Amino acid sequence: MKRTAAFLLALCLLLGGCSAGEALSSDVEGSSFISSVPEASAISLTDSNGDTLEIPPSPKTVCLYGSYADAWLSAGGSLVGTTEDAVEERGLNVGDAAIVGTVKEPNTEKIIALNPELVILSADIAAHNDIRDVLEAAGLACAYFRVDTFEDYAFMMEQFCALTGREDLYLETVEQPGALIESVTAAVQKQQTETDPPPSVLLIRAFSSGIKAKAEEELAGAILKELGCHNIASDHPSMLEDLSLEEVIEADPEFIFVTTMGSEKKALDYLNSLIAENPAWQGLSAVKEGRYVVLPKELFHYKPNARWGESYAYLADTLYPDIDYEK
Fold first, then answer.
1. Structure pTM?
2. What is the Cβ-side half-sphere exposure of residue 63, based on CA atoms within 13 angstroms?
C-alpha cells in the first residue's frame, strides 16, 4: 500500500538505515503520508492549510482541541499541555499535561511557558487563528487542522503517525475503520435500487436556546449524503438560517436526526418544548413511525476519530435496518 510504503520511507530515512534512493525504490511515488525527510533530526509535517513544518520526531506537544488531542494520543504521541475540553468533555487521560485554558480561550502565556516543539490547533476556531502570530513570534511551530470528513481525519493521522513512528497505530486507527466504511457504503449502494427514491432526511442541531437545520457541512450531514440520503435542507436553504416548521411539514422527511451542542439535556429539553407547543410535529411521519433519532454525541458531535467507521455503521443500520455488511 502506498501509505505503508511511505511510512517505511520516513522511518528508513529517519533511522539512517538506508539512503533516500534505496527507500524510493519501494514504489512510494505519489504518497502523501510524509512529504519529505530532509535530515535525520526532523520530519516534514503538512497541515490542513498546506503549510509545511519541520518537526522533530515525537515532539513535545501542546494541543488546543480535545478531539485532536485524542487523535494525537491515539497516534502514540504524548502531551505537555492541552485545553479543558480534552479532560472534561472527551475524558482523556492526559497524564501530567498542563491545562492551558479552554478551547475557545487558550492561554498563550501558559502555552509559551511549556516551550513545546509543536502546537496543534483547529483551523475552524477563530481564537486559534487569532493567537497564531503570538505563538509563532515566540518561535513555536503551529499546525492547523480541519477535520470534517473521514478523509480529513486520515490525512491528519498520516502526519501524526509519521511524527511518532507508529505505523501500527495508523493501521489500527485509520485503515481498520476505513475498511468498515468501505463495507458499509458498498452494502448501501447494493441495497439501493433505481426504483427506490433515496431516503429523505432532516438533520437538526439543537442547543439550549435554539435549533437549526444542517446540511453536509455537519459531520452527520456529510455521512448521510454519502449514504445516498436526500437532505430536505438542500431544497429549502432558508432552513439553514431559520428552521420553518411549515416547510418541514410540507416535506415530511422519512427520518429526522438530531445532534446536540453543549448540554445535551438542555438542548433536548428546548427541542422537546418546541415540539410540545406545536402538535403538528407529532403528525410527521418520522415522529409517528419511530424514525426520529437523537444521534450519540461521541459519534456525531465530537470527531469520532478511530470510531469513524462506527458513525457510518450507526446511520446505515438506522436507514436500512436489513442491511448486511462485513463488520
1. 0.82
2. 21
